[in-house]
Design a protein that fits this description.
366 residues; Phosphatidylethanolamine-binding Protein; 5-stranded antiparallel beta sheet; two-stranded antiparallel sheet; elongated; PEBP-like_sf; PEBP_euk
């Protein structure tokens, strides 16, 4: 522990690698940080002095930067001014994070899962953890399994989206997650019988202010027999969902449920379906609410049309896969109250056989 603290005291923030949340932190909420005693190790004591001095310098820089920001916001609106404001905000955020990132108590809390996302330092550390551990897996899965570009153009997620379908639904807990959670790795196979009820949606974002998002669950793999291709089916659509770094559990309170939750039901005879949850930022950087007429929205609505019509920008996603099993028959009968379809490949026509199944004659009388 001493070696880690000492190194943190002299390490450049630009090269700092935040600790990951470890599974050993199962009882983290009950644990309390105990600082090592001072006066025992002179090197440790000196490291703490370096950390404290660095924090004082950075706090002074932050004060000056905030004065610049205040003056800039009073200037006449322009594209240049807006860009400068965003740059200053990002600089202030990083300085706030760097001023605390080497604090041994902050490091201990992050490692043990005691994360306060209202603090810049924890948002910064969680963001780095997401970029390093989660994002590569999500991008690999959506690329390998063609969620992009089948469902939407290539993009880089900036938030972590996780679903909880309840106990026993998750085959594998993602790296960095609480081992007692029901979250699953992006692209996992889930059983249809475990997803008949709407999941809890957990979104880790890194902006302190509240923004509005639209959340959609879509299946891009429903058979379109008439056109001999596939079509999208919208399983769930919620608009005007408030999300911030400290408000990460999706609630329908204040939001608009446009399409109620439709349980996934991959039809018999089809290959696996990619049930994809998309989280899209609403217009004006998430500041604006949108209006949707429920009576005009069908389950055939595509993601492309949804985003184009309401100026939505997808910021995060996750997906799970399913194939038909006997529970799908029960879902059709008891929940959907529909006759269950069954699909198969078209019978291959042999050009050498006639309509009776006999070999065609080589020659015929004219």
């Amino acid at each position: 522990m001493f070696t880690r603290i000492l190194r943190a005291g002299i390490r450049s923030p630009s090269t700092f690698r935040a600790f990951s949340v470890q599974s050993s932190a199962r009882n983290a909420t009950e644990a309390t940080y105990k600082a090592p005693a001072l006066g025992v190790n002179k090197t440790y004591d000196e490291a703490l002095k370096v950390i404290a001095e660095d924090k004082i310098r950075r706090l002074a820089d932050i004060k000056a930067l905030r004065t610049q920001l205040e003056q800039l916001t009073k200037a006449s609106p322009s594209a240049t001014r807006d860009a400068d404001i965003e740059t200053l905000k990002e600089t202030i955020f990083k300085q706030e994070a760097y001023s605390e990132i080497n604090d041994p108590e902050i490091q201990w809390k992050f490692k043990n899962g005691q994360v306060d996302m209202s603090k810049a330092v924890f948002r910064y550390m969680k963001g780095k953890q997401f970029t390093r551990e989660t994002l590569p897996i999500v991008q690999q899965r959506i690329t390998q399994m063609n969620v992009t570009p089948d469902l939407l153009p290539n993009f880089t997620p900036t938030m972590n989206v996780q679903l909880d379908f309840g106990a026993g639904s998750s085959p594998k807990v993602p790296a960095g997650s609480d081992p007692s959670s029901n979250f699953f790795e992006t692209g996992s196979f889930l059983l249809p019988g475990k997803t008949t009820q709407a999941p809890k949606v957990h979104i880790t974002s890194f902006h302190p202010e509240t923004k509005y998002y639209t959340i959609a669950l879509v299946d891009p793999d429903m058979p379109d027999v008439e056109n001999e291709t596939y079509k999208q089916q919208m399983h769930w659509l919620i608009a005007n969902v408030p999300i911030s770094a400290t408000q990460n559990e999706v609630t329908t309170e204040g939001a608009d449920i446009i399409l109620s939750y439709l349980p996934p039901h991959p039809p018999k005879g089809t290959e696996y379906h990619r049930y994809t949850v998309l989280v899209a930022e609403q217009p004006n950087g998430g500041q604006d609410k949108i209006q949707m007429d429920q009576s005009q929205v069908s389950r055939d609505l595509t993601v492309g049309d949804l985003c184009a019509e309401h100026q939505l920008s997808v910021k995060g996603l996750t997906f799970f896969r399913q194939v038909w099993d006997k529970d799908v028959s029960r879902i059709y009968k008891d929940i959907l109250k529909q006759d269950e379809p069954a699909y198969g490949r078209p019978v291959k026509v042999d050009a050498l056989l006639d309509e009776t199944g006999q070999m065609k004659k080589k020659y015929v009388n004219l």
